[in-house]
Write a structure and sequence with these properties.
Blueprint lengths: L2 H7 L2 H6 L9 H8 L4 E7 L5 E7 L1 H10 L3 E4 L4 E4 L8 E8 L6 E7 L21 E4 L2 E4 L1
Parallel strand pairs: 1-6
Antiparallel strand pairs: 1-2, 3-4, 5-6, 7-8
Length: 144
């Protein structure tokens, strides 16, 4: 069974809140198939150093980030510019942008305005502070 088969069976709620492990090993192939040039962007909290999310940026998103000092990305699922927080209010203020040794990935150091980063919410309805809110234990996902 392929990832797309599993995703069709699983709804987003089960994917984002469930305990079944269903990793998307085809993500980079899907991005490459769009032929839109992007770089991976690791987004890290400037103060706590917690990794908040892995996203992607093209030249437009990077330029927007540098100009506005708000983390912006290229949405690989919607194929459009994604200004983090534009609809949710969960804005990530840019502290600095770093470039890796081979110049093929970026690190955005940010400070969340409202404390949240992920598009998912916890059981109290609050935006999660990071997209990495589950860990693998015995082949299943468990909340951290």
């Amino acid at each position: 069974m392929t990832r797309s088969d599993i995703t069709t069976i699983m709804n987003h709620h089960e994917l984002e809140e469930g305990s079944a492990l269903s990793l998307d090993f085809l993500k980079l192939q899907k991005i490459a198939a769009t032929q839109i040039p992007v770089l991976p962007v690791i987004v890290q909290h400037a103060d706590t150093h917690e990794v908040l999310v892995l996203a992607y940026a093209n030249a437009v998103a990077l330029q927007k980030t540098l100009e506005t000092k708000i983390a912006s990305f290229w949405s690989t699922s919607r194929n459009e510019l994604w200004v983090k927080g534009a609809t949710s209010g969960d804005i990530l203020d840019l502290v600095e942008v770093r470039v890796n040794c081979e110049q093929n990935s970026l690190l955005y150091l940010v400070r969340p305005r409202k404390g949240g980063c992920c598009h998912t919410k916890d059981v109290q309805g609050h935006t999660r502070p990071s997209c990495y809110y589950r860990k693998i234990t015995d082949g299943k996902l468990n909340f951290v």
